């Protein structure tokens, strides 16, 4: 009887609750994705959106005593990233597309990258876009993560937890949320995350 059970466990492990190891998502540094011309162009467009797309806000107009409420478009990259992290993720992607609603070619570019590389790598690229004005700067990143540690511990601890679990996109969201008042530091975080990945992640330990 014992032999029969052992044979069953060998060939039908799921019946006995054997754990299935989960494979962590690849990082962009584990692929050649940054060399893809399509991605190189998209990174420029992500950065354009970081710089230029701001959240709309609700406002009211009083016309002859009638108050009309208009809802602004929420299409900033940060709002899209927040929706990706907090769900539902498809809404985040649609919000990102909305920020390029004037350019069908760029929207198609985003869709192609999403289809080619998958959601996690796509959003990791969004979290890695920066331009020459804010290159990778480990010392600046360290100073501002230290500031978070002392002044916004919830943001810091959430990022630390997610980096430990290799949830890079969520970790970057929390770091940038803690510096949401300072877009230039957010961009420094993104550039340093892209170019000095391992050392940047260690700053949150």
Q: What portion of residues is helical?
A: 55-70%
Count of helices?
11
Give the strand line-up of the largest sheet.
1-2
Q: What is the chains' assembly state? A: single chain
SSE order, as H and E?
Answer: HHEEHHHHHHHHH
Structural class: mainly alpha
Mean pLDDT: 81
Low-confidence stretches: 1-25, 57-62, 67-72
Globular, elongated, flat, extended or rod-shaped: what is the shape?
Answer: globular
Quick description:
The chain is built from eleven helices and two strands; from the N terminus they run ααββααααααααα.
What does this structure look like?
This protein is 60% helix and 5% strand. The chain has helices at residues 2-11, 37-52, 77-86, 89-98, 104-117, 119-126, 138-151, 153-164, 168-178, 183-195, 197-202; strands spanning 59-63, 66-70. The chain has a two-stranded antiparallel ribbon. The protein starts with a helix and ends with a helix. Mean pLDDT is 81; it is low at 1-25, 57-62 and 67-72.
What is the secondary structure topology, with strand pairs?
Layout (H helix, E strand, L loop, with lengths): L1 H10 L25 H16 L6 E5 L2 E5 L6 H10 L2 H10 L5 H14 L1 H8 L11 H14 L1 H12 L3 H11 L4 H13 L1 H6 L3
Q: What descriptive keywords fit this protein?
A:
205 residues, 11 helices, 2 domains, globular, disordered N terminus, single chain, 5% strand, mainly alpha, two-stranded antiparallel ribbon
């Amino acid at each position: 009887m014992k032999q029969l059970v052992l044979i069953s466990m060998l060939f039908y492990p799921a019946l006995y609750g054997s754990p299935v190891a989960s494979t962590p998502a690849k990082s962009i540094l584990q692929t050649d994705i940054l060399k893809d011309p399509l991605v190189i162009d998209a990174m420029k467009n992500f950065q354009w959106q970081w710089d230029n797309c701001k959240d709309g806000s609700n406002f009211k107009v009083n016309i002859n005593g009638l108050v009309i409420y208009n809802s602004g478009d929420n299409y900033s990259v940060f709002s899209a990233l927040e929706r990706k992290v907090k769900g539902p993720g498809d809404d985040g992607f649609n919000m990102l597309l909305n920020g390029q609603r004037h350019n069908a070619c760029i929207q198609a570019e985003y869709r192609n990258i999403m289809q080619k590389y998958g959601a996690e790598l796509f959003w990791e690229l969004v979290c890695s876009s920066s331009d020459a004005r804010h290159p990778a700067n480990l010392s600046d990143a360290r100073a501002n993560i230290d500031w978070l540690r002392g002044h916004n511990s919830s943001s810091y601890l959430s990022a630390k937890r997610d980096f430990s679990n290799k949830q890079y996109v969520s970790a970057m969201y929390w770091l940038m949320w803690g510096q949401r008042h300072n877009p230039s530091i957010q961009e420094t975080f993104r550039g340093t995350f892209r170019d000095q990945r391992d050392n940047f992640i260690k700053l949150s330990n």
